[in-house]
Structure formats: C-alpha cells, structure tokens
Write a structure and sequence with these properties.
mainly alpha, Na+/H+ antiporter like fold, 18 helices, globular
C-alpha cells in the first residue's frame, strides 16, 4: 500500500465525514458511498487516479475486521435480557435462519447443477447472516416499533457467529473433492476442534482478561483510552490463542465477546465507543476494497443465473423462511414483510467469502465466491436505498398500538450494531 493509496483513503473518510450528518437524512448510506468510490477507482475510468493494495494487506484487513465484528456483535447482546424477550429473535435465529440456509442451498443446486450439495450448502450458509448496518435507518428510526427494531438488531448481532461454524464445517467437507483426502475420523476431529477448542479459548481469555480489567479499573489504574484498547486486545488474544491450540480463532472471538459482554458488561461501553469510530473505519475500508478489487471482475463474470440467484437470495430465500418463522407470533402482515425484506447481506458474508473460501479450495469455489460478491453488492444498494423510505412507511403502518399489540410489546433496548 503506497502513499497515494493512503492519501485517497484519508480524503474519502474526511470528505464523507464533512457531510455525514446531512446524508443520514437521505437514502445514501456509508457502505454505498465507499463501494461507489471503490467502483470508480476499480473501473479504470479514472486513469489519473490509482489505488494499489496488495493481497496480503487485504487479507490482514479482512481478518482483523472479522475478528472485531464478531467480538463486538456478541458483546452487545445481553443474554439475561434476551432470555426474557426471546420471542422474535428466537424465531428468526432458530427457525428462519436454518430454513434460509436450506432454501439458499436448494436454489444454488437448482441454478448451478455443476456444484455439489455441500458447495450449495456453503453458499447458503455464507449468505444466511444479516448486516443491520447496511440499513441503519431500519434499526434506528423511532417510529419503527422497538420490538421489531430489536429483533433485527439481535438477529444481526448473533447470526454471523452462529453461521460461522456451519460455514467452516460445510466448506471443509466440500473441499474433500478438491484437495487431500481425509478419513472420517479426521473430519470428526476437525469438527470437534472447531466447536470446542475455539469456544474454550474465547471463554478463558474473556473471563480472565475481563476480571483483570475490572480489577484495574476499580483501583483507577486504567485510563479510559486504554479501557477501549483493552477490549480490542482481548478479541485479538482470543483469536490468536485459539489458533495456537488448533481451534478456530473467529469462533473464539465471538465467544469471547459474548462472555465479556455478559460477565463484565460495564466494560463494554469502551468497546462500543471504539467500534463506533475506529471500528467503523475498518468496516468502510472493507467496502472500499470490495469496490476497488472485487466488484468489477465479478460483475464481468456474472451470468444470468448468478443474477437470478442474487434476486432470489435477497427475496424468496430470506422472506419465505422469515414468514414461516413468524407463524403464530401474532404479527401483522406488514411487520412480517418488513422483517423479511430487511435481512441485508453485508460484512459477514463478504469476509466469510474472502477468508474461508480462500482456504477451502472448493471445486467450484470461484463460482461460490462470485455469487457472494454479487449478492453483497446488490444488497448494499437495494437495502441501503430502501431503508429510510421503508422505515417511514412501516412506522406509519404500525403506529397504532391498538391494532398492532404484538409489535408494541415492551422490550429492553440493546446497543445497535453500527
């Protein structure tokens, strides 16, 4: 990465920052802006301007961002509160998400018959997590009932960590046809390491580290700035510690965030502050790189079947499972449609594709990768542009608590994913 690239990134961040508050009232979102800037630079139409970022930098940025996103998402969720208000999030995660993975796999196998069932399952699992940050207006507009906003917020905060082990195991099994064969016992041991060693490392790091931070803060030995940095250090320690013992570092980061957020919740205010500023910068850089390096080659390779899958993934594959999961919930039809549409595919899907498919060596890995990139690109703009208008429409439709009693049930608000 050269000085010119740093200059353009700094100019982009400064330029957007100057008008960011004004743009909050429009259909323009930060991911849309940074993907668009990336598309302009990546198209070659701006011959006088260039950005040079090598593959190693992209990989490190993606890895760091995914660790912090998984850690931060999990830390935001207060499980004690959630246990008392499981209703809608439990339906979305326990019924809607598995059905979404199955529907995504069926659609993939139908449209791409050359793929194996496991490769189709990988695609369905990668595109199952949602990213509420792509439609921030949906989870931050006061006219949208808090229970609906909270359901989407909690779903987005947990489904990336839930999907991760599923993606890893499907990808590992699917890669059997493209690499060195393993015995059944080796695959069982691999799966066992993913779901045991990673979580163990995450719990240990967060519990010990959280108690040390708490002891330091209670004695007023730690400043606020280092309180923010300490949370990030725990995320990285969980990741690297799990990798050292043969577990999965990303699962460890997610479990560490959940452990810290529910054992030392007061410390997480510093973490939220970091993620709302410095963490947001990492996320926007990933979207910028999506536009610069990944978008145009993928668009050039895009076929009619790929684009059809994108449309199905953002509509039927998501909305039908959500509708099934909400049967018997008492929600009115506009609420079910609103919950179904606002399942944006964003950062988690993009990072899973960059980091996991790169290692998996699937026989049809490039096809799966291209479909994920196209889906994320479409979602950035489709959900970004529709978020504010749809939130206003739905806010009016659900404004009468007498006619929408389920939507207006009281819940405790949890921190938003930015």
């Amino acid at each position: 990465m050269d000085a010119t690239t740093f200059m353009w990134i700094a100019l982009f961040v400064l330029g957007y920052g100057l008008v960011s508050k004004r743009l909050e009232r429009t259909i323009v979102t930060p991911p849309m802006v940074f993907v668009t800037l990336g598309l302009l630079f990546g198209s070659g139409s701006l011959a006088a301007l260039s950005m040079h970022i090598d593959q190693g930098v992209i990989h490190v940025l993606a890895e760091l961002t995914l660790v912090l996103v998984l850690f931060g998402d999990a830390a935001r969720i207060d499980l004690r509160v959630l246990r008392n208000e499981l209703g809608l999030p439990a339906r979305l995660l326990g019924i809607g998400m598995p059905l979404t993975i199955i529907a995504g796999a069926l659609a993939a196998k139908l449209l791409f018959p050359q793929t194996t069932w496991l490769e189709a399952a990988v695609l369905g699992a990668i595109l199952a997590p949602t990213d509420a940050a792509l439609g921030q207006a949906v989870v931050s507009t006061p006219s949208v009932p808090l229970r609906i906003r909270q359901a989407l917020n909690v779903e987005s905060g947990l489904n990336d960590g839930i999907a991760l082990p599923v993606v890893l195991i499907f990808a590992a099994l699917a890669s059997m046809g493209g690499g060195e064969a393993r015995t059944a016992s080796e695959w069982v041991w691999f799966a066992a390491r993913q779901v045991t060693l990673g979580p163990l490392a995450g719990v240990a790091v967060a519990w010990i580290g959280g108690r040390l931070i708490n002891a330091s803060q209670s004695r007023e030995w730690m400043s606020g700035n280092f309180g923010r940095l300490a949370g990030i250090a725990l995320a990285l320690l969980a990741f690297t510690g799990a990798e050292q013992i043969g577990g999965n570092g990303f699962i460890a980061a997610f479990v560490a965030g959940m452990t810290l957020g529910n054992s030392q919740r007061g410390q997480c205010e510093y973490l939220y502050q970091f993620l709302e500023a410095e963490g947001q910068l990492l996320v926007l850089l990933v979207f910028l790189l999506l536009g610069v390096h990944l978008a145009w080659p993928t668009i050039a390779e895009g076929s009619g079947r790929m684009w059809l899958y994108v449309v199905l993934s953002l509509t039927v594959v998501r909305m039908v499972p959500v509708a099934i999961s909400m049967m018997g919930s008492g929600l009115r039809a506009p609420s079910v449609v609103f919950l179904g549409w606002f399942g944006p595919r964003g950062l988690a899907s993009l990072l899973f594709a960059i980091l996991i498919l790169e290692e998996a060596a699937l026989p049809h890995g490039p096809l799966v990768f291209d479909v994920v990139i196209l889906t994320v690109l479409a979602s950035v703009f489709a959900h970004g542009m529709s978020a504010a208008p749809a939130a206003r429409w739905y806010g009016r439709a659900a404004s009468d608590a007498a006619h929408c009693p389920e939507e207006h049930k009281a819940v405790v608000e949890q921190p938003l994913r930015m």
